[in-house]
């Protein structure tokens, strides 16, 4: 009877799960041979103390399923036949039963039909009971799967926290971008308004050279701030905007004077 275990919600770590599980089992003294590892299925033979079996690791939706199929020998059948089939060709019968010799089927049935009183029935029941018991390695495997699952769940939680932090940072940057763009737009409006006023006064014959140089400098700083926005260099953006705003105010003062 196979034993089945699940690693919940960690299929994205499939390859990592396999490596960690094999390492965990190896540390516990498990011998792993005949490995075949694919993208969604891995199979390998395992031996723990005197217990042998075959282990499969499968991607199952968001989960990882581990199947362990222990290789049991029907020791109970051997004991039962040994006690009940004395004189019935026990050596050849056992060899046939254990090797799956179909030619011996009728002989086994005939022999067993008269052997229940000798203990065969109880032996077979003992075998069925033993199939339901968790083996020593199955217990080790259950603990190893749980340990690896917990480790990967912790990693998954950390990654999700990091992704959420990045999303939050992106939201904050988006808000800051919009805030800075609004401020830049206000500065540009002031520059255009001041340039229009300077041009009108210049047409009227006023000396606006100092104011004009200030607004031209303000406009240059404005475009430099826009370039810094493309690089998300917010400290430079704010510095250029402050300088541009100061040039605008100075231009207005000189114009009024």
Instruction: Report how far apart the termini are.
Output: 98 Å
Widest beta sheet: strand line-up: 1-5-4-3-2
The number of distinct structural domains comes to 3
Assign the CATH topology of the largest domain: TATA-Binding Protein
Q: State Rg.
A: 41 Å
The low-confidence runs, each spanning 5 or more residues with pLDDT under 50, are 74-102, 104-132
Quickly give the structural class: alpha+beta
What percentage of amino acids are in beta strands?
A: 15-25%
Listing every helix as H and every strand as E from the N terminus to the C terminus, the arrangement reads EHEEEEHHHHHHH
- The second-level CATH architecture of the largest domain is 2-Layer Sandwich
User: Outline, from the CA principal axes?
Assistant: rod-shaped
CATH class type of the largest domain: Alpha Beta
What number is the mean pLDDT? 78
Residue share in helices? Answer: 55-70%
Number of helices: 8
Biggest sheet details: 5 strands, antiparallel
Number of strands: 5
Q: Features of this protein?
A:
257 residues; alpha+beta; TATA-Binding Protein; 3 domains; 5-stranded antiparallel sheet; 15% strand; rod-shaped
Describe this structure in a few short sentences.
With 257 residues, the chain is an alpha+beta fold.
Task: Report what the structure shows.
With about 260 residues, the chain is an alpha+beta fold. It folds into three domains: about 1-70 and about 140-160, TATA-Binding Protein; about 75-130, no CATH class; about 175-255. About 65% of the residues lie in helices and about 15% in strands. The protein has eight helices and five strands, in the order βαββββααααααα. It has helices spanning about 15-25, 75-85, 90-100, 105-115, 120-130, 135-205, 210-230, 235-255; strands at about 1-5, 30-35, 40-50, 50-60, 65-70. The protein has a five-stranded antiparallel beta sheet, covered by helices on one side. Strand 3 and strand 4 form a beta hairpin. Helix 2 runs antiparallel to helix 5 and helix 6 (about 135-205) packs parallel to helix 8. The longest helix has about 70 residues, at about 135-205. Mean pLDDT is about 80; it is low at about 75-100 and about 105-130.
